[in-house]
Each structure stands twice: as structure tokens, then as C-alpha cells.
């Protein structure tokens, strides 16, 4: 007779396998939600990681991207044990980013940036264990944790800025990918047929028969709506240039935020030093 633990393991195994399927499709929310609920129910994430390590994350880049997305959701919305029991897998997460970062293509850069963000998140929560994975916390709770220690506030600001650096770096990687490869919400998903295991010898006519040309299969489109002359032509060169300009502006804004980080930290440090000096003066007078 199957126990509840065995049923949960089977259910989790199926959900993870479906969530990380190596196809160029988004992570399905229903699979991620099922995984998060199972972790909440069992109050442990070791089983989740035991299943994750058997997935083809190092072999399929779409599986790697979906893994980053899934892990982020688990850390944010899952049981608090997920933050604690994921700490020892930080090196594995970084190795995934390094591997796919060597591709130097659109998704490779994104995976590298995402993996670095995940490790930064784990390090932040390891140092600040009172903060939930969602980072939803009130100022009153922060004041209780700080206990009037100004150095704590300064260190917290520095760590949050480091956290924001990696968030912005991921956003820049994604926007650059969209800009470089002309990806839009109207781009239809395609699929390539499986190629032969060994490439044919094109010098021999005998091998011509084994050649399988790469052909993109695009999903069939529904019947077009009636043409309305007043509609804007979204395929015109002007609109493409405008979209590129908007994306470039967003990237510039994000990069400027990164450049302002050091100046902001110095300002905070100056204010902290002034506050400490003020308190020391008050202590001397008293």
C-alpha cells in the first residue's frame, strides 16, 4: 500500500518534470503552484532538490531557464525551509550560470544573470534570517530587528543595493535579448525537427538521402480579421525604430541606476558618520 509520503514524492516528481520540460515554452504556473503547495505540506525542500539534481539542467538551456524561474518562485512563495535547505546548493546554481553563460547568446546571458541573482538572494537571507522569502516586512519589524543599531541599517542598505544590482543586471540581460533578437509578444513559437545523429557526407551522393534539412514549423494562424484602414502598421520601419528607442532608453535608465549605486552608498555612509558623531556629542554632554 502506498504511503502519503510516497504519493507526495510521486506527485512532486511529476510536477518538477513537467515544469522543467526542455521546450521553448514558459514555466506553467499550475506546475509551480503544485510544487510550492507540496513543499508547504511536507515542510521540507530536500525532496525537491533530490528531484531537481536529476533534471537535465546542464543539457538543455530551456530547462535551465525554467529551473531559475521555478526556484525563484519556490524561494519567494514556498515554505521558509526552502530558503534554509537551498543554501548548500549555491555552488550548483552558480555552475549552471557559468556553463550557459559561455554560450554568449540571448538565453545564455539571461541564465547567468538569473543564477547570480538567486545566489545573491540566498546569501541575503542567510545573513538576514528574519526576512521572509517574499521580502514583505514592515518598517516596525525592521526597527525591532535593528534594535537602534545604526551600523545594522547601513549594512542592510549595502546588501539591498547589491541585491538590486543583480535584479537590474537580469533586467538588462532580458531587455538586451529582446532588442537583439527582435522578440515581441507577437512572435509565434516554432519548433525544429530532430536532426540526424551524424551529419551526412555531402561529397557522397549516397548520403544525400539521410540529410534532414532544418525546417521551422509555425503554428497555424486563425482566419485574419477584416482589414481596417485606420489601424497602425506595426511592421513599419518607424515602429520598429521606435520600439528599439524605447528599449534603449530603459536599458540606459537601468545602467544609470547601477552607476549611481556607489554615490548613494557614500552619501549613506556620510549620514551615518554624522549621526554617530551627533550621538557621541550628546553622550558627552550627558
Strand content: under 5%
Please summarize the sheet with the most strands: 2 strands, antiparallel
What percentage of residues falls in helices of 4 or more residues? 55-70%
The N- and C-terminal alpha carbons lie at a distance of: 75 Å
Average pLDDT number: 80
Shape estimate: flat
Series of H and E elements:
HHHHHHHHHEEH
Query: Low-confidence parts lasting 5 or more residues at pLDDT below 50?
Result: 213-218, 225-232
Helix count?
10
Question: What's the Cα radius of gyration?
Answer: 25 Å
Structural class: mainly alpha
β-strand number:
2
Strand order of the largest sheet: 1-2
Walk me through the structure.
With 286 residues, the protein is mainly alpha-helical. Helix content is 63%, strand content 1%. It has 10 helices and 2 strands. The protein has helices at residues 4-19, 29-42, 46-52, 61-77, 81-85, 90-101, 106-127, 139-146, 150-180, 237-285; strands spanning 190-191, 217-218. The protein has a two-stranded antiparallel sheet with strand order 1-2. The radius of gyration is 25 Å and the shape is flat. The chain starts with a helix and ends with a helix.
Kindly list the characteristics that best describe this protein.
286 residues, mainly alpha, two-stranded antiparallel sheet
Spell out the blueprint of helices and strands.
Layout: H1 4-19, H2 29-42, H3 46-52, H4 61-77, H5 81-85, H6 90-101, H7 106-127, H8 139-146, H9 150-180, E1 190-191, E2 217-218, H10 237-285
Antiparallel strand pairs: 1-2
Helix pairs in contact: 1-2, 1-3, 4-7, 6-7, 7-9, 9-10
